[in-house]
Specification:
Layout (H helix, E strand, L loop, with lengths): L3 E3 L2 H9 L15 H4 L4 H7 L3 E14 L6 H7 L8 E17 L3 E4 L1 H4 L4 E5 L5 E3 L1 E6 L4 E5 L23 E6 L7 E12 L10 E4 L11 E4 L4 E8 L10 E5 H12 L7 E3 L5 E5 L2 H7 L7 E6 L4 H5 L6 E5 L2 E2 L3 H9 L6 E8 L2 E8 L12 E2 L9 E5 L2 H7 L7 E6 L14 E5 L2 E2 L3 H9 L6 E7 L2 E7 L1
Parallel strand pairs: 1-15
Antiparallel strand pairs: 2-3, 2-5, 3-4, 4-8, 5-6, 7-8, 9-10, 9-12, 10-11, 11-14, 12-13, 13-14, 16-17, 17-18, 18-19, 18-20, 20-21, 22-23, 23-24, 24-25, 25-26, 25-27, 27-28
């Protein structure tokens, strides 16, 4: 089970370390040929030395079919290799980009670039190579923090700045190593902000740009025209793997939070504990807005509140509308989740809400997801279909880790390799019933499984919010 690091005040320190927004300057379109001929070269010379190539390698073991993937036999066996299959070790390599954010060798990249890596090599634009240590891999945000040891030498680095200053239409640069061809710079504009209708990471809150981003650019910086880093390039929308002018970057506010947690220490297996609100909410459509007497859709409608929610304790009720967090508008549940995730645990956050049509502000304390009830992590063993399954009681912390919203039942956290149960359940499934017995805690599940079942087993499993019945004889 993963252990977690809390950013605490580190993210506060890092965010305050971001340079203050530059003095407001008038934004104009080019008016003559001289202005059109202006070059990005000085900006590239400033940032490019801090953009690195990241090569990762991992050894995996795969079971190879004795039928050598013959299509005739595949139709009968599929992925089940059966007796006679061979285990073969293979080396997988991946390529990505990264950004040096501190002169002593602190680097940020995408989590998927270094996920599961046994070896990570960082190559600077000047050809120097360093072995890197993974300080933190945070799958929910798809960010990872690495460290290299340059000795007494100081490395070139770039500085984050708030992405909130961006406006749609602003020019930006993307720097990285697409397709492994070498460091490449592309330019474009900010196509959209707060883009959330995606399924790229757990937060789904991105800066969209038409600057060309291709495979290998992942982990490279998105650069504003004043030289500040406003995002880390993460993904593209593509039909064939090439750029279609729709790229997405993780905003610098989230990047700063993850870097702060990485600096707090760890062994690379940690994630980031983020503030927990204990609120389930839905977007507001025009129909919902009309039924509530709202002038236009906006904010998120609170549909459920956890009993331990700090927002509930502050006065939030089901049916209220959250319109802003710390003065930043909230348009949908993904944006609410993102805004809260950048608030350090222990600090105060202001929720602007509409309660029965009256606007008011609630002040809440950002807390970590509670570990209540205790997890009681257990490996199930015995003569039953769930032998080899690791389970845990459900509490808010487990809900966040597993990405579930079930408050009842027992969650599957892992299934041992080779276990028959792999055909029945996988991590994230919630077991809510066994042979007509309602399951609330791990103890309930163990008692139900220890009873003899001569006629077989009837399991009720919740997966992605949908309950299904599985019968095993």
């Amino acid at each position: 089970m993963q252990r977690f690091l809390t950013a605490f005040v580190f993210s506060t320190l890092l965010l305050t370390a971001l340079p203050a927004e530059a003095q407001e300057t008038a934004k104009t379109v080019p008016e003559n040929r001289t202005q059109i001929s202006l070059s990005f070269a000085p900006l590239v010379k400033q940032i490019a030395p801090a953009v690195v190539n990241i090569y990762s390698k991992r050894v995996v073991t795969r079971r190879v079919s004795p039928f050598m993937n013959d299509p005739f036999f595949d139709q009968f066996f599929g992925d089940n290799m059966g007796a006679g299959g061979l285990n073969r070790r293979q080396v997988e390599r991946s390529l990505g980009s990264g950004l040096i954010v501190e002169a002593d060798g602190l680097i940020v990249t995408n989590a998927h670039v270094v996920h599961g890596a046994d070896e990570i090599t960082v190559v600077l634009p000047d050809g120097r190579e360093f072995e890197a240590k993974k300080l933190l891999e945070d799958a929910p945000s798809d960010l990872a923090v690495l460290r290299v040891e340059p000795g007494e030498e100081k490395l070139p680095f770039a500085t984050l700045e708030p992405s909130e200053k961006l406006e749609v239409g602003d020019m930006v640069l993307a720097i990285g190593n697409p397709f492994g061809v070498g460091q490449t710079v592309t330019s474009g504009i900010v196509s959209a902000l707060a883009r959330s209708s995606l399924n790229i990471n757990d937060f789904n809150f991105f800066i969209q740009t038409d600057a060309a981003i291709n495979p290998g650019n992942s982990g490279g910086p998105l650069v504003a025209m004043d030289g500040g880093i406003v995002g880390i390039n993460s993904a593209i929308f593509s039909r064939d793997g090439g750029s279609l002018g729709i790229g997405f970057a993780i905003p610098s506010e989230m990047v700063a939070t993850v870097i702060a947690a990485g600096k707090a220490g760890g062994d690379g297996s940690h994630g980031v504990v983020r503030a927990w609100l204990g609120v389930q909410a839905q977007g507001i459509t025009q129909d919902i807005a009309d039924s509530m007497g709202l002038k236009k859709p906006g904010g998120v409608l609170v549909s459920a509140l956890h009993g331990a929610s700090p927002a509930k304790k502050a006065g939030l009720e089901v049916g209220d509308v959250i319109v802003a967090i710390n003065g930043r508008p909230v348009h949908d549940p993904s944006e609410m989740k993102f805004r809260l995730a950048t608030v350090p645990i222990g600090e105060q956050a202001d929720l602007d809400i509409s309660h029965k049509g009256v606007l008011q502000t609630l002040r809440i304390k950002a807390i970590a997801p509670p570990e209540d009830p205790p997890r009681q992590e257990t490996l199930l063993t015995g003569y039953h279909p769930l032998n080899g399954v690791h389970v845990s009681n459900i509490n808010p912390a487990v809900e966040v880790e597993q990405g579930i919203n079930d408050e009842e039942g027992v969650v599957v956290t892992e299934v041992d390799n080779g276990a028959v149960a792999l055909r029945i359940v996988h991590a994230g499934d919630v077991i809510v019933g066994v042979n007509g017995v309602k399951i609330g805690r791990v103890d309930d599940l163990q008692k139900a499984l220890n009873k003899t079942a001569p006629e077989g087993w009837q399991l009720i499993i919740s997966r992605d919010g949908q309950k299904r019945q599985v019968i095993v004889r």
